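To assess whether the prediction recovers the assembly geometry, we first specified each molecular entity separately, as shown.
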Amino acid sequence: MKVMTIVNAVNDALDIKLGDDRNVIVYGEDVGVEGGVFRVTENLQKKYGVERVFDSPLAEDGIMGTAVGMAVAGLRPVVEMQFSGFAYPAFNQIISHASRMRNRSRGKYTTPIVVRMPYGGGINALEHHSESMEAIYGHIPGLKVVIPSTPHDAKGLMIAAIESNDTVIFMEPKRIYRAIKQEVSEDKFSIPIGKAKVLSKGSDVTVVAYGAMIREVQKAMIMAKNAGISVELIDLRTIYPIDRETIAESVKKTGRVITVVESPGSFSVASEISQIANEEAFVYLEAPPKRVTGFDTIVPLPKGEHHYIISPEKIFYEIERTVKF
Amino acid sequence: MFEKYNPLDNNMLQVIDNDGKIINKEFFPNLSDDQIVKAYRDMLFARTADLMIVSYQRQGRIFTYPPNYGQEAIAGAIGANLKDDDWLVPAFREMGAYLAKGATLKELFLYFMGYEDGSLFKNAKNIFPMSVPIASQLTHAVGVAYELKYNKKDNVVLTVVGDGGTSEGDFHEALNIAGVWKGPVVFVVQNNQYGISTPVSVQTASKNIAVKSIAYGIKGIKVDGNDYFAMYKAINESITIAKKENMPVLIEALTYRKGAHTTSDDPTKYRTKEEEESWEEKDPLLRLKKYLISNKLFTEKEEEKLISQYKKEIDRQFIEAENYPKYPLDDVFKYLYEDMPADLLIQKNNHEKFLKWKENFVKN
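The predicted structure of the complete assembly is given in tokenized form:
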């Protein structure tokens, strides 16, 4: 066991997979010499050489397009989009090719690509550096979308993502890149994609969250506990394929569900979870499924970001209202 | 070749003239008479099929189709140069090249009839499915070239785009990255002078398309795309240099789309009759046939015989495609992921329940 941050854990996962599979290739903007602007790929070039870990030209579309070609030819590229807000030039390749190649070629060709991208707000960043756009990837048929919330999960999910024969969008919550330290096994292990995890058992209300929002919910849970409310917390871990079963089972038990996401609320993962609760547990519901989300606005620049960011108090406020509904 | 036909000088590699006479012996490719006759027969097959597909479309037996008419020498020369293990990353107007790679006409028919089953080119090795979003396939070829170089394979990847595609960002990212990474990749631009209705003059201010290679630090050459020998030579030399020196090459193949962009397009809206007629004598099949006839390698009679033989074969494959099994609901779902997600299974099952209900509903 070793104490790791999410940054260390992803690095460790990449290290392990680079070590055990020569087809794994890691590249993107500044990932080689510098080890990435967040140092997630630090030292990997030194260890595995410039052929396997390297700086690409500054071209997200080109990074993604070449990854599609490499993958069809048999490699397993892990590419970095420096910030999720800069991934949009690559969107055409993601939606037009990476997500479709398997279907288009009736399984003859697969695209085992991992697209890493730091996402999310709360770091006092410039414009385009704070968005949480997982829903748009979840909406695309053919993709898997994964978001870890702890170093342990980051490592296990990254190993699973690299070993997946489907394209995986791996979104890294940069707000908690270094904020959470945890003992993580140094061995190789993977966590199945598509499975949520019940982090705390509870009986009054189910709260579903993922990424950086887990920590905020856990703070709110202390307030809830003081108010005598028992919360069941589910870490979704995978946005798609979504773990309908775990959500349904929990909502049937508690009769209430709140989803906390930092993205805009309309057409969001939270909307999807509310609908799952309606479809799977309608007769068990004692309150309408609730979404606690960012506004349907642009994330404000740092001086205004506090208006947008979801606070533990806001989460507790909605927990209380839902329980008292 | 690349020195002599520097794109900056706007010289175009040409080997035979419109009468099929050799005008450039130095660059006549190393091909046996048999190979040349085969090249012509392959092009003739592609053209016969192409014309028949357009007529099937008019009969309502196939959906939208992008004809190859007039551009057969380019696909023919690509097909003749690629080995089994070489990669082809197509756009969608290179029929001769797919057939040479091992795809069947039946598969093409299936694709344009609306089956994905037609786009996998089951028995053709190392060929991507056709790519509809313009130019987005070019970076795939650069990625394939990376793999070939990484695994030290003695192969090349060749990719194709039209003149309109050279305006897309993907074209520039692909050439730029290819220039930086170096690798065995050949880009062929079929410059048929129109992107649907838009002429090249609206796409670029460059004096030609090949010249764009210079800024990216790769090789480039402009070639008469209606001259089979010039195309064969250019592709052959490009593959050699791409493999030997890991030097990407951009080939501009100047041609003319004698047909419409697709069967939904009407070229009379944007092209004059005079212009279309001026390209008749430059037709790639006509020029190669003149060469063959003057060298006593082929006769008009043989051509007639071949065409009727080809028509039968094409029709046979078309009817096979028409009798292809119905598209099962399973096929909508099962190829998207390696393992079908539970959500998709639920959607499929629910739809099947609905279909059962509908059967009764319609009956009553």
